[in-house]
Structures are given as structure tokens and as C-alpha cells.
Design brief:
Strand content: 15-25%
Oligomer: single chain
Radius of gyration: 38 Å
Number of strands: 17
Distance between the termini: 47 Å
Structural class: alpha/beta
Length: 514
Amino acid sequence: MKGHIYESHSLSSEELREAELLWLYHIQRKHYKEVHQSIVDKKPNNLARQFDIFIDESGLLRCGGRLEHATFSEAARHPILLPRKEKLTHLLIDSVHRQLLHTGVSQTLSELRHRFWIPKGRATVSTVLKSCQICKRVDCRPYKLPPMASLPKSRVSESIPFSNVGLDYLGPLYVKEGNNSKKIWVCLFTCLTTRAVHLEVVSDMTAGAFLLCLRRFIATRGTPKEIISDNAKQFKLSSDTIKLIWGNMLQEDDVQCYVSGQDIKWTFIVELAPWMGGFYERLVGIVKQALRKSLGRKLLIMDQMNTVIKEVESVINRRPLVYVGEDIKSSIALTPCHFLSLNPKTGIPELDYDTKDPEFKPYESTAEKLLQIWKKGEQLLNRFWVLWRDEYLLSLRERSQNKIKSSRIQSHETPSVGDVVIVKDNLPRGQWKLGKVIKLHTSRDGQIRSAQLKVSNGQILRRPLNLLYPIEISGSDTMLQNSVNHDKIVTNDAREERPKRRAAEKAKELLRRI
């Protein structure tokens, strides 16, 4: 080729064929030099005998076989022998794989064997196809989530009602205002320990309206120690998709300043991981079901809606927390209302007085009687906590599910910092964003369930592992480089520790004398 003058800038088919023959001849002499020499010298060789190898008119090694009379082409009857660990072999496999529109291992190997024969061909083709970036992006599977962790201490420890609460919004609901209708939302507070709920009506989704709602809750139920909430930026409703900047509203400076001043710890769950807030999501569903069945398509005024919301709150707080048996002698059914009020009755109260005694005063009480009533209330409350611990808490073991529902096929890779992933979204898979893992978050039990990643536009996201699909694993390149470095070190050490021959020492001594 050197010194040849080309008339065109593009390569012809003959030139490409000639270049391919030269490369094939080069790699065969590089890897199968002994086989070629044994055939020329007519000496036995195991590989030559196994594949019935011979040398064609171009000087290439070809495999024989028993398909001499088959109606195949010459290349299919006698394919060219290729080494499995050569870069050119991998390039040829990748070329056939792309020509067949990224088909699987079997079809790629079948097409490849029309011209070439690779020892351990299926394993080699499978290795090359695993490095195809297009196939990785389409076929990769999400990380595997570890089993569910134990319930947090605030969920299984006795505490004052609403000292640890979960927070979520539901809605919108519509109320009548003049001749028009107006949207309102309901803010739900739930106690982690007693499973009681507190509902507040919110006029809009601004930070100011939420701050007033939070102040009303604190004035009614007391200041909580911790608030757990969702930080999703939008909620999907049944008929419309209304964008609610929920996370931004809760993270406003006014809200966080007020929370810090009240010594409240605010915890946000991982984005797009609603199962981490399941303790309040379940109650949101119960409230929606009660409103849907009681209101139907009715349009109420604001006062009527406030009344219905409080009645729904009262009814939900009177739901049984434990299984209600058929035995008439069984203990009372424990409800959240038992921890909030010693008078579980709802509705209009009735006065109990003696009509025959004109001097009877129904509200007159002595200090001893008030103390007796207070002690009785404390005894009842202690009894309720015993039932809560012996019946409700132990019944939580009956929930046998310990894994999050996810896809059947998952990645076997372990997440690590530096992994390149695609982030699952409510879009076609081809439009999912690429991201790089920059931090892994460890749970209380030491397991990794979420990661912080940086996408192409510079935005920092936090996602659960089952929404991250790994494409490139940082550890593979690092391990490969470490192994190469280790081999270099071993080789250098071996060279340094190699003993010197006596003949070499004598030769050096003679050269010095000369």
C-alpha cells in the first residue's frame, strides 16, 4: 500500500476487502502461529485436529468439518478461525450486532458463523453484547432494593399523641361561594403512635396558608417533636393533573423559620418514594373514601364543608386499631379516640339532672371529686396503653410483606458512587435523563435505599434505588485498572528479583576489560 497513489478519497470495496484480509492474516499469525507452523510442517496439533484447520489460497486458517456437500457458501462451509480475546474479533461481533439491529446473542452468533468461527463463540458474543451502550440503555434493569427496615422507634414507642406526626395534602375539594365554586384543600396530620388524624381546611397552596394551618394544629394538639412529609412537586388527581409546588412550599423561609423557632424537626422522605410515607398515605385514602361516599356530587358551602371535615375526622379516630372478634366477653376495641378523649361519644351532649330535686346543680363539684375523676381518667389511659402494647403493637407482626413491589428482573450490581444511571420518569424510556451517582444514603439499619445524583443540566436529585437503572459501573473500570497496575507491579518485581546468570556476569566482565 505504501507509495500507491489513490485517485479517490473514498475506499473501494476491493480495498476494504484487502485491508480485512491483511488484518485477519495478522491476528492469526499473532495468536495461531504454532497452529500455522504445525500445518506447514505437517506436525500434529490439538487445535488443528479439533477444528480440522487448513490453510486456504490466501494464507488464512479455515475450519473444516462435515458440511462439504451442503448448499452453503464457501465461507459458511469453511469459516475463518478468529481468536476470542482479540480486539478485531470484538469489533466484527459489534458490527454484525449493529447490522442486525441489536438482536440477541443467538441471532448475532448465527449470522457471524456464516463467515467466521470463534472458539467459545457464545460466551464471547455475550461479553461483547453486554458492553453495547444502546442495548444497556434499553435493556438495563433497576437496582435491587434491600428488604424493608424495622419500624422506627417513634412508631412503636409510647408517647404523647401527635408528638411525632406525618403530614400530607389531599384534594382539591370544591365549595360554593356565591354563584361560583372555589377550590380548597385538606391538610392531614396523623400521629405515628396512636394513628389518630387531625384535618384542617386550607384555602390555597401558598406557604402563608400552610403556616396558618400549622399554627392552628399546634394550638389544638400541641407542638410536635418531629414532622415527616412528602416533598413531591406535584400530585396526580383522578380527572386533572394539577401541579402543586408542595416541596417548595414546605421549604419556604417563613415556614422553616417558624418550625425552627418551635424546636420542631422536619424530615422529608425521598422524592418519588411514596411507600416511605405509607403511614399517612393510607389515611389519606381512608379520608378520600369517606368524603367520596358521603358527599358524592354535592356542592357545599364553606361552613358545611368544615362541619363535614370535622365529622370525618371524628369517625376515623373512632375506627378500631385491632381485630374485632365475635366473642361477647372480649375486651373493648381500641381506637385512636381513646388516647385523645376519655369521652368517645360524638353528637349533641345530653344533660343528666334530677328533675325532682329543685336544688340540684349539675356542674357543681368538689376538689376531691375532680381528683377522683382525674385518677380514673389516668387509670383508663394506662389501660388503653396496655391494650395498645399487647394487642395493636403485636398485631403489626401479622404483616408478612418485607419487600417493596418492583419489577421481576432486577440488576445484580451494587450501587456505588460514580455509577452512570438513567432515571425512571413518567416519560417514554428513550427520554429518561442520564445521571451520575454522587452520594449514597444509608438507612438506620445500614442498608442503602436511596442515592443522590447529578443530571446533565446540573440539577441534584434524590431518588430511590428502584428508579435508577445502571448503565456503567464505576467499579468495573477501577477494578480493571487496579488489576493492570497489579500485573505491572508483579512484573516489575519479578524482573527485579530475577537472579542473574553466571554467563551474563562473565560476559559483562569481559566487556569491561576490553
